[in-house]
Amino acid sequence: MKQLKYFLWVAVVAISIVGCHKPVEVSFENATQEIEAQGGSIEIGLKSNGAWTIESTAEWLTVSPMSGSGDATLTLTAQANATGESRMANVRAFSKDNSSVLTVTQGFTEPEQYVNVTPKELLCDSEGDEFVVALSTNVDWFVSAPDWITCSPTEGSGDARITITVNPVESDVQESREAEVVIGNQSVFDKVHVVQTVEPVLDIELTPNSLQFVCTGETKTMNVSTEDSWSTSTESDWVTLSQTEGQGDAEISVTVGENPIYFNRVAIVIFTTAGNVQKVLTIHQEASPNPHFLEVSPREIAFGKEGGENEITIGCDTDWEFDLDCEWLTLSQLSGSGNATVVLTADPNMLTETRSVEFYAKSGSLSSRLTVTQAAGDIPIEASFEPDTLFVPYTGGLQHVQLTSNTSWTLQYDSWISIYAATSGEGDASFDIIIDSNSGSNSRTGYVNAIHNGEVISALVIVQEGKTNDLETDITELDVRPEGGEFEIQVTANQAWTVHTDVDWLHCNPSSGFGNGSFTITVDVLSSPRPREGHIKVVGDAGSEVVIIVNQH
Q: Which class is domain 24-106?
C-alpha cells in the first residue's frame, strides 16, 4: 500500500512538471489585414496562452494595446494615405516562445485636381499691355483667349508662368472691352478677367476755320469749341497765337505781321485734341506792294552723333543776321548783306539723348526759323541678372531668373544647364533655368552668359554642390529564432540602392530603391540544429555599401 501511494505521488509530480513547461504561444487571427485609403481604426483578434508584446515601426500605423496576456482584441489605427502609392507595414506579436506577423496594407486616394492662376484681374488702357500670371496646377492644361489677346505658352503640364499680351485697340474702336482667359482642361480650370478701357473721342470745332489778312498785318479772333484738351502746331513763323494750348472752349487772337514778299502767302495752323482729333485753321495774307525778301535753305538740318558741317544758303536783297546762341553749334558768319553761303558746324554729341535747337535768320521785319537736331550719342550698354549667383543642391532643379537689359542679347550656357524660354531677345526678360543633377562628388560651377555683339555683358554664376555618398541602414546585425520570420529594414540614402544576399535562406523585398525607404528580410525556418550565418549587402550606385549580418540559432 505504501508503494502504491509513493508511485501515485511521483506521477502527480511528473504531470505537474510537464504542465509547468507548456510553451507560451501567440498568433493573430489573420495573417493579413487591409485598411481603407482614407484611414481609420479596425479591430483584430490575438490569441495567446500567456504574456505578449506588440512591435510596429510604421509611423502611419498605431496599435493598442501594445502588451498584455492571454487572448485580446487589438485596435489598429491608420492615417489617411495621400502619398500617391500603396503602402505596407508589419505588426509583430512576441511571446517568450514564439512570434507572429500581421501584414497591414493600405491603398491610396488620388490627389484632387486643381488649377489656380494669380492674379485673376488684369486692367489696361487702349494702348494694350503685357502681363505675366503664375499658374499652379497638377494637371495638363491649355489656354483659351479671344483674338485680341495672345498668350504664351498656350499649353503645358504642371506649374508655369504665362505671358498674356493685350493688343492695342484699332482706331475705329470706341468702347471698352473685356474677356475671360480660361486656363485648364475640361474637368478643372481657372479664369483671368481682362478689361481694356477706351476713352471716348471728343470732337473739336473752329469758328471760323479760315481768316483773311491785309498785307500790312493785323489781329483777328477765332473760337475753339471742345470738351477735350488741345494744342496747336504750325510751320509758319509769321503767325502768332495768343493761346497755343488749352482745355475746353477758348477765344484766340491771331496776329499776322506785314507781308514783305510780292506774292500772297498761306499758313496752316493745326488744332489737335488729346484724343487725336485734328481740325485746320487756314490763314491767307495778300502780297506786299513793295516786296523785300529773305530766303534761307535748308531750314531743317540734321547732324549725326559724330557732328560735322552743313552749308546754309542765304538769299536777301539787304542786310541780314543770325541770332544763334548755342554751345554745340558754330556759324562761320553771323551777319552779312546780300546773297551768301555760311557753314554750320556741330560738335559731337556726348549725351545719350537727341538734342535740338531753333534759331532765326533776320532781315528788317522778315525772319526765317531754322531747326537743327542731332542724334543721340552712344548709350552705355547695361545688363544684369537677378539674382547674379545661384547655389544649387546636387539634385538640380528649376530656378527663376530675371534679366534687366537696355540692348539685345543672346544667352550661352553650359551643357548641364537648360533655359526654359527664348534664348535671345532685347530688353528685360524673365526665364526658368533647369539644372541637371550632379552625379559627381565634386562641386561644379557653370555660367549663363548674356552676349551682345560677341561680348559678355552680364554673367549668371551657378554653383552646384557635389553628390554626397550617404547610405546606411537602421541595423547591421540581426539575431533570428529557428522559426524564422520577417523583419523590416529602414534605409537612409541620397542615391539609388540594390539589395543582395549570399545565402538562399534569406529573401529581400523589394530588392532595390531610391533615397530613403525600406525592405523586408524574410528568414526561412532553421531545419538543422546547427546555427547559421548569412549576409545581406545594400549597395549604393555611388559605390558605398552596408552589410547586415544575420545569425539564426
A: mainly beta
